[in-house]
Amino acid sequence: MFYNYILKCFVLVDLKMGKLTHQDLGQMQMYVNYYTREMMNEGDTHPIGIVLCADKGDSIVKYTLPEDNHQIFASKYFTYLPSEEELKRELNLKEFHKKNENENINQHF
After folding, report:
1. 25 vs 42, 80, 93, CA distance in Å?
2. Which region holds residue 58: left if phi is over 0, alpha if psi is between -120 and 50, else beta?
3. What angle separates helix 93-108 from helix 84-91, to the nearest 10 degrees?
4. Is the pTM for the entire model greater than 0.90?
5. How far apart are the first and last CA of the chain?
6. Which burial class, exposed, middle or buried, applies to 47 when counting CB atoms under 10 A from its CB (0-12, 13-18, 19+)?
7. Which of the pair, 18 or 43, is modelled with greater confidence?
8. CA 34 – CA 66 distance, rounded (Å)
9. CB distance 52 to 13 below 8 Å
10. Could you report the per-residue pLDDT of 31-53, keeping only the tens digit for each?
11. Nearest partner of 54 among 89, 87, 93, 14, judged by Cα
12. Please, which residues have CB within 8 angstroms of residue 89's CB and are 6 or more apart in sequence?
């Protein structure tokens, strides 16, 4: 749990080692409800719950959470570290360096 000063809300994070279950989402809903009722201060926005799991079934999320849910999120995490090449590709690192170099050149003129 941490407090996000920009969003003005508590952010609750739960890391699950296995497959996501409706019990996991129900537990997070309980935590979010608790923080909403007991920990929020005037001016705060509603808490956000994030469940990270090794495997996520979209149907579990769809049928466990209400349709208008904007507070609880479930996402799959990777159990391995990406290679340096994968990270560069994902972050478009080559593009970043080119842009950065051009900015440095322009600053000298």
Report:
1. 27, 24, 36
2. alpha
3. 60
4. no
5. 48
6. buried
7. 43
8. 18
9. yes
10. 999 999 999 999 998 898 888 88
11. 14
12. none
Least confident of 10-14, 63-67, 98-102: 98-102
* 16: its two tokens: 């699950």
Helix locations, the chain, DSSP H: 22-34, 58-64, 84-91, 93-108
Stronger pLDDT, 1 or 92, i.e. the higher one? 1
The CA distance from 4 to 6, in Å, is 6
Give the tens place of pLDDT for each residue, 56-99: 777 667 656 667 767 776 776 666 677 888 877 777 766 555 55
